[in-house]
Design goal:
Number of strands: 15
Number of domains: 2
CATH architecture of the largest domain: 3-Layer(aba) Sandwich
CATH class of the largest domain: Alpha Beta
Number of helices: 18
Strand order of the largest sheet: 4-10-9-8-7-5-6
Bound molecules: pyridoxal-5'-phosphate
CATH superfamily of the largest domain: Type I PLP-dependent aspartate aminotransferase-like (Major domain)
Largest sheet: 7 strands, mixed
Shape: globular
Helix content: 40-55%
Length: 469
């Protein structure tokens, strides 16, 4: 029997949850079930997910920020389907592929100042590449990373993760990796001054907490790295490709001199895993230093035609949809709308954004009864409060959002950059309603939250007990 994908998708629309539970990750499936996120989406278009009944959902999570050009973008789809029909001779390995050369050329045109591009299969793969390139080219071991950093979860990238929860139990990760405070130039200079640091790897805006550094931080960090012989590596995996209203987020800081820039996520067009590491000739000459070493760093799928087509099409689609401009316009509408609510709703501590990377931070309110509710919820779990917003946003308003990492009180919005005026209004109207409900204590919103919190505590206790037995 030939594999009939359409049929398969139709038939599997029901049991998808069970299949995940049985064969992939039962605890993740269960936790989605507990918060009501185990929905069945059967189609998607731009910033919308669509369920079996044709109901639209607003996707403010954007597949963790990779659908910059919109879900199922026509240009990317057409390019991929044309590519499949072209039956190219992909991945010859001992060959010089046309398409990776074209994508490299196109990326260099958009990000001037770099000489070569190394293609990867994911963001973390790009970070691993940057670590290796920096170590070999500087002949130093140290890698600096910032507090609260996230650069992926492979072993090397994990060593640069600022959150203990991800690292715990995985043993010694990367000798020479050291954490410094994000957005602290003095701390960076102290750490660089021993001249044993190969690279400082940093996100221009941190995904965790949507932390935007001071103006000039990235520029100054670049200068310092140069002064001390350290490579300055900018991780634009989430922030790049127009997300923040510029092609790269570091462009907000003027003339930032990076030695290596890492891209991924949206370069995939949302279809084929792909990443790119842009770097300079000096580094190239020290890595691929002889004919013998000319593939000393490589991976089997690295320059696959399909990934390269997705990359070329993704860039075209970003141009066609005027993505950077729309990110600025819609980001400002969203950000200003939320900021205006800050005056009315005590739980909103801060709203910050660059383009369509938006953080809504919550904090302890002033009034006594709300403050008591806040403290009780935080005593149950430091991860709980934001669920009082993300759960009703999905359950009552069909909007998908995420908390920006463990132990944060910040919700992050990284939707497709094709977001429309109507989408922004949808979000602001829903968010306002959720805020009104949450500012009534006692009330149903709080009852639901306490129920989830107590269940979570019970589950934690029983898993600790099970582990001890
Ligand atoms: C800033 C940043 N770097 C690296 C990564 C890792 O990318 P991947 O999940 O493709 O390995 C991510 C993923 O969320 C990221 O946000």
């Amino acid at each position: 029997m030939p594999l009939d994908i359409r049929r398969l998708l139709q038939d599997a629309a029901g049991p998808h949850h069970q299949l995940q539970s049985d064969h992939v990750n039962p605890r993740f499936a269960k936790s989605l079930n507990l918060i009501g996120f185990d929905r069945t989406y059967v189609n998607a278009e731009n910033a919308h997910l669509i369920d079996q009944n044709g109901e639209h959902y607003l996707d403010m999570l954007g597949g963790y920020g990779m659908f910059n050009m919109g879900r199922n973008n026509k240009t990317v789809r057409r390019a991929l389907s044309d590519f499949l029909n072209a039956e190219t001779a992909s991945l010859i390995q001992l060959g010089t592929p046309l398409l990776s050369g074209m994508l490299a050329q196109e990326l260099k045109r958009r990000i001037p100042g770099f000489d070569y591009v190394y293609f990867t299969n994911s963001g973390a793969d790009g970070v691993e590449t940057a670590i290796k390139f920096a170590r070999r080219s500087t002949q130093r071991e140290g890698i600096l990373y910032a507090s609260s950093a996230f650069h992926g979860l492979t072993t090397g990238a994990l060593a640069l993760n600022g959150a203990e929860i991800f690292r715990s139990g995985f043993g010694q990760l990367l000798p020479g990796s050291r954490k410094i405070n994000y957005n602290d130039i003095g701390h960076l200079e102290d750490a660089l001054s021993k001249r044993d640091v190969a690279a400082f790897i940093v996100e221009p805006i941190q995904g965790k907490g949507v932390t935007i550094p001071n103006v000039g931080y990235l520029r100054e960090a670049g200068h310092l790295c140069r002064q001390y012989g350290t490579l300055f590596v900018v991780d634009e995996i989430q922030t790049g490709l127009c997300r923040t209203g510029h092609f790269l987020a570091m462009d907000h800081d003027g003339d930032v001199e990076a030695d290596i820039v890492v891209l991924s996520k949206a370069l995939s067009g949302g279809y084929v895993p792909v990443g790119a590491v842009l770097y300079k000739k000096d580094v190239y000459n020290k890595i691929f230093s002889s004919f013998e070493d000319c593939v000393v760093h490589s991976s089997t799928f690295g320059q696959g035609d399909m990934a390269m087509v997705a990359g070329l099409a993704a860039l075209t689609a970003l141009d066609e949809s005027n993505a950077a401009h729309n990110a600025n316009i819609m980001g400002d509408r969203l950000g200003q709308g939320l900021l205006a609510m800050k005056k009315r709703f005590e739980f909103i501590a801060d709203v910050r954004w660059r383009g369509l990377m938006v953080g809504i931070e919550f904090g302890a309110p002033k009034s006594l009864s709300l403050r008591a509710a806040w403290s009780s919820v935080n005593a149950l779990s430091k991860d709980l409060f934001c669920q009082a917003i993300t759960i009703p946003l999905l359950a009552d308003h069909r909007i998908l959002t995420q908390v920006s990492g463990h132990r944060t009180n910040t919700i992050k919005l990284i939707p497709p950059l094709t977001l429309t005026d109507e989408d922004v209004t949808w979000f602001l109207t829903a968010f306002e309603k959720v805020m009104v409900d949450l500012h009534k204590f006692p009330g149903p919103a709080w009852e639901a939250l306490f129920r989830i919190g107590k269940n979570a505590v019970k589950r934690r206790e029983s898993s600790v007990q099970a582990a001890a037995e």
